[in-house]
């Protein structure tokens, strides 16, 4: 039987699975065979599909919220949309890692996810403090509440996409990102709360809610770091 090397490559990943799988054997007592090439291609495609879909969902969510922010000037909404933009962009390093078919690169991409969450928290926090120092009440409150609802729905949908794919592919980075988006869904509800309290005559509540969102995002950062660090420690 001809020896098939571990280094054989699949020339056309579009062929049926039966043609994709290339078994490889090793001489000696530990001879064995695998279908790892086929699995890596399938995993790569599934991962790229999941991050692309979540990128589209959160990108559209953030764009819709940006339009409302320009009209309303709400700091609570600004904190949410900055975070949603950052969250959407975490799909880029994850997508690259899946394209490389490298689980090590994928886990390290989780570090970029954590960094993006942390930076978005810092930006949102600074904006909230500035608004506390220089008060300005948000306007268009009904549309502001709608933007919060859009953020809630967008994050919840993105979370489901990431969590399902992360558990199916055993990807710590995708799972961390999924939990992150799930928490963000409830953070977006704070935007609705801001619209309500400002309508009741408490405009200073808007930057305070923005500051509260910042602390929630920092907590998400810490939790996501714990998940990613655990996988990185496993690599060593």
Q: SSE layout and pairings?
A:
Elements: H1 17-20, H2 36-72, H3 75-89, H4 91-100, H5 103-133, H6 141-169, H7 172-199, H8 205-235
Helix pairs in contact: 2-3, 2-4, 2-6, 3-5, 3-6, 3-7, 3-8, 4-5, 5-7, 5-8, 6-7, 7-8
Structure explained in plain terms:
Helices cover 78% and strands 0% of the residues. Residues 4-37 have low confidence and may be disordered. The longest helix is centred in the first third of the chain and has 37 residues, at 36-72. The protein is built from eight helices and no strands. It has 236 residues and is mainly α. The protein has a single domain (39-235), classed as Up-down Bundle (Alpha-lytic protease prodomain-like). The two termini are 37 Å apart. It is elongated, with a radius of gyration of 22 Å.
Regions with little confidence, pLDDT below 50 for 5+ residues:
4-37
Determine Rg (CA atoms, Å): 22 Å
- What structural class results from the helix and strand content? mainly alpha
The CATH architecture classification is: Up-down Bundle
Number of helices: 8
Short description:
The protein is an all-alpha fold and 236 residues long.
Kindly list the characteristics that best describe this protein.
mainly alpha; Alpha-lytic protease prodomain-like; 78% helix; 0% strand
């Amino acid at each position: 039987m001809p020896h098939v090397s571990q280094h054989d490559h699949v020339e056309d990943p579009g062929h049926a699975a039966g043609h994709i799988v290339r078994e490889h054997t090793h001489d000696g007592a530990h001879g064995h065979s695998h279908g790892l090439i086929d699995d890596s291609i399938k995993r790569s495609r599934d991962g790229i599909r999941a991050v692309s879909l979540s990128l589209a969902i959160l990108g559209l969510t953030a764009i819709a919220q940006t339009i409302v922010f320009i009209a309303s000037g709400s700091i609570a909404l600004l904190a949410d949309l900055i975070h949603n933009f950052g969250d959407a962009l975490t799909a880029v390093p994850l997508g690259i890692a899946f394209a490389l078919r490298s689980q090590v690169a994928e886990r390290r991409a989780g570090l970029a996810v954590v960094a993006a969450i942390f930076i978005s928290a810092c930006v949102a926090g600074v904006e909230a403090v500035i608004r506390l120092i220089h008060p300005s009440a948000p306007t268009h409150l009904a549309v502001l509440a709608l933007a919060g609802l859009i953020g809630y729905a967008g994050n919840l949908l993105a979370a489901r996409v990431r969590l399902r794919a992360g558990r199916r592919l055993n990807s710590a980075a995708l799972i961390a990102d999924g939990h992150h988006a799930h928490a963000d869904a409830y953070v977006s509800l704070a935007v609705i709360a801001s619209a309500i309290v400002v309508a009741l005559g408490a405009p200073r509540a808007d930057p305070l809610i923005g500051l509260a969102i910042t602390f929630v995002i920092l907590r998400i950062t810490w939790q996501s770091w714990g998940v990613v660090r655990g996988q990185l420690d496993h690599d060593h």
